[in-house]
Amino acid sequence: MSMILFACVVRVRDGLPLSASTDFYHSQDFLECRRRLKTLALRLARYPGRGSAEGLDFSIHFSSSRDVACMAICSRQCPAAMAFCFLETLWWEFTASYDTTCIGLASRPYAFLEFDSVIQKVKWHFNYVSSTQMESSLEKIQEELKFQPPVVLTLEDTDVANGVMNGHPQMHLEPAPNFRMEPVTALGILSLILNIMCAALNLIRGIHLAEHSLQVAHEEIGNILAFLIPFVACIFQDPGRLVLLVGPNLMACF
């Protein structure tokens, strides 16, 4: 059985998946591990460098540098040095194929899915081929791991705990309360009609006086305001019911 089962490349700052291997395993444990890998990808900025999250049957290994991280799901039998050597090789292949600008401007998931062919080739090489060059690379990685051990997590650390995910409290959205207006009673309709009639009469009188404002003394301006102010007061006396009937009644008045 292959030791390296799945690999992907993600952007560190936001966990955006850039590419991934397209071979799938359908066991429930593997699918659960994939789900936790996605959660961990969103938190990679917390764990610069190398790290591992170990479960019962599978392990997640990741290696990040600059804004690119490579992640892999491996069987528990896969040596850590082999997993990190694979991830480092994958990282070099990806950064040699795509420059920093392209990576930074990527806006949709799996924007570089064509890189899957390279992932498959490197994965197959590490799973089934043994060479002197690979052994030399493994020894180099083993020495690095001795001096700088990877961050060790458990798969439970990558999941939601105590209502907190990715270091941020979960937000529970509740539906807004549904407010319903009470139906307008007959007395309310009558009151509204009378208010509108009074307002219309005051408005007509105020306009009539305003048309002759140039021919009257300044003290007559007070008479104009005496009609316009009650008009405004009538309009705002019952704004809730006004919305229902003001349109038709104004048209009727004029």
From TrEMBL:
It is found in: Endoplasmic reticulum membrane. GO terms for cellular component: endoplasmic reticulum membrane. Keywords: Endoplasmic reticulum, ER-Golgi transport, Membrane, Protein transport, Transmembrane, Transmembrane helix, Transport. The keyword Transmembrane helix applies. InterPro entries: Longin-like_dom_sf, Longin_dom, SEC22a-c_C, Sec22a/c. GO terms for biological process: endoplasmic reticulum to Golgi vesicle-mediated transport; protein transport. Belongs to the synaptobrevin family. This is Vesicle-trafficking protein SEC22c.
